[in-house]
Amino acid sequence: MDSDARLSADIGGTFTDIVLDARGKRLTRKVLTTPHAPEEGVLEGITLVLADAGLTLSDINMFVHGTTLATNAIIERRGARTALVATEGFRDVLAIGTESRFDQYDIMLQKPQPLVPRDLRFTLRERMDARGGVQIAPDDEQIRQLGLQLAAAGVESVAVAFLHAYANPTHELRVRDILTDVLPPGVTLSLSCEVCPQVREYERTSTTVANAYVQPLMAGYLARLDQALKARHFAGTLYLVTSSGGLTSLETARTFPVRLVESGPAGGAIFAARISECLHEERVLSFDMGGTTAKICLIERNEPAQSRIFEVDRTARFLKGSGLPLCIPVIEMIEIGAGGGSIARLDAMKRVTVGPESASSVPGPAAYGRGGARPTVTDADVMLGLLRPEGFAGGSLTLQPALSARALSDAIGTELSLSAEMAAHAVYEIVCESMASAARVHAAERGALLSRHTMVAFGGAAPLHAARVAEKLGVRRLVIPNSAGVGSAVGFLTAPVSYEIARSHHTRVDEHTDYAAISALLSDMEEAARSMVQTGAGSAPLVKRAAAFMRYVGQGHEIMVELPDRPLCQTDARGLREAFTQEYARQFARSIPNAPIEVLNWSVRISTIPAPPVPFIPAGEKIALSPLEIRRFFDGGSNGWVDLPVYDRTGAPSGAFVPGPAIIVEKETTTYVSARFDAQIDGSGNIIMNQKDAA
Predict the structure, then answer these.
(1) What CATH number is given to the structural domain containing 592?
(2) Residue 370, domain CATH
(3) Rounded to an integer, what distance in angstroms lies between the CA atom of residue 404 and that of residue 375?
(4) How far is Cα 412 from Cα 422, in angstroms, rounded to an integer?
(5) 3-state class (DSSP) for residue 10
(6) How far apart are CA 42 and CA 30, in angstroms?
(7) pLDDT at 2
């Protein structure tokens, strides 16, 4: 086994990306995702990339895997038949939610359907108070009878979420002990005291239910993948990427699969953060566009924005509160259904719209020639001349422009009296505007000014659209990094092994607080987090980050404040208040003098220390490149064809200069340099694009 040989795999909605780092080289492969059995696509890609390197799986020391399987299962409602067991009187917490309306003026407002239908929601007579005191103990016989009901209902997974279980888990633990003996083998149980031991009943229940809903599916998939790898003599360590951008063990992923819902996009954010560090950029806009979705993430001081809550399956694309809340550590980003495979159509008012429905890998865009008849973004790119039909996706596909033209004409062009080319231009403009709108919303929520950011674009489709999106946002500098087409999979290989635990413990921040009790709580959390990390970390040094989630008394939401790496004491009250006031003022441009402050939740994260990145080498003097060919490109602005030079990125020297408009091709993706930008290859092989008036 080669101690330096590492593999990573990112399963997307259309393509599965494989990256191999071995013997000082990086090799990549793209294969079509196999939705019926995702492990087949992974194994196919692994076989191809290992053959390229002359290695076998027995030579691989580490395999890192990220997937959107859990997210897609929730969105498409393909999870297990799940039951909820709640406290008596709280059967409908999933339907009631917080009683808020994400759009108070929409009389046709639609909320996402709960993952558990009402006939599979059960209750038990039990009650715990907010301080963990037992008010009503559950009856063992009632629990057994409930178990028989669950078995008769044919449930595959059970979520248990009792009132105030975060303060005292004994009732949930007792239910698990009894149900384990009563339920048929193979039925999984998820307890809120383990999945999400935090206040806010609806969010805690929603998270626990989501974990239960995807657990059988994820456990089955991970078991099949693990067995297949071992059958091919893989003896290294298998890691899964969590939504917070850390690596976790196979067993932890099986127990808490809800933490994997954003694992693929998280890899992209890690990749962009690494690029920002190598570039010494303080403010970066990460733009990740693959085959199914586009992800936007703000990165400041080399750290992607983090959040404690994430919404999946939103019924309104940009409105908070319109999805199912999941209380998990997650990299904060905005994700929309705008990828290469996103389907274009006309709405009821005959406006061109794109996504969120995707052609996926089966049947795929019309140009794939695999039975798809509806036009996609990829078909528009083909029709415009941005994509060369031969050698698409690393040579795995040959595109068919005639099929793209037919699909665009049938769905859009004929109805609007447009040529196939002008229909393609409309699709291109709409999808770029959708992504720009998503970036504006994300920036507004974070109080960021995008014109001050450098865009890092990656994913198979992003380099084709990044320049136009940047024009719409006022971004003047773009970076298309090396291995951009498989950026998320590259990011996986730089992620630390980590685990974060959060627990609720409400207290005021003053000199009368029992800081000894809080320190004991943090110590227990640290021990639990270390036990999750230690196996994968081995002898690697670990770092701890503890945080308090604080607010002014009476507010509804908290902000994170980091804690010192030592036990807390009474004299820390002043420091905590000052740290909170500074962070509050940074986020909201004001503070509230002398207002009392409280802490609702505490968290501890244990992680390994990633290796420091190697800074990128500047480009130096400009060097003219000779084009590979001249390609015909349809310019929608002038409604005519123009000639664009096409350059090969592979082997281009440092300083190679490409004036826009132009196309730069490579194995994994294609970059479009618009007329407003010039591009140059730096000393590390990255494409740096600057607006011409800013050069």
Answers:
(1) 3.30.1490
(2) 3.30.420.190
(3) 7
(4) 10
(5) strand
(6) 10
(7) 54
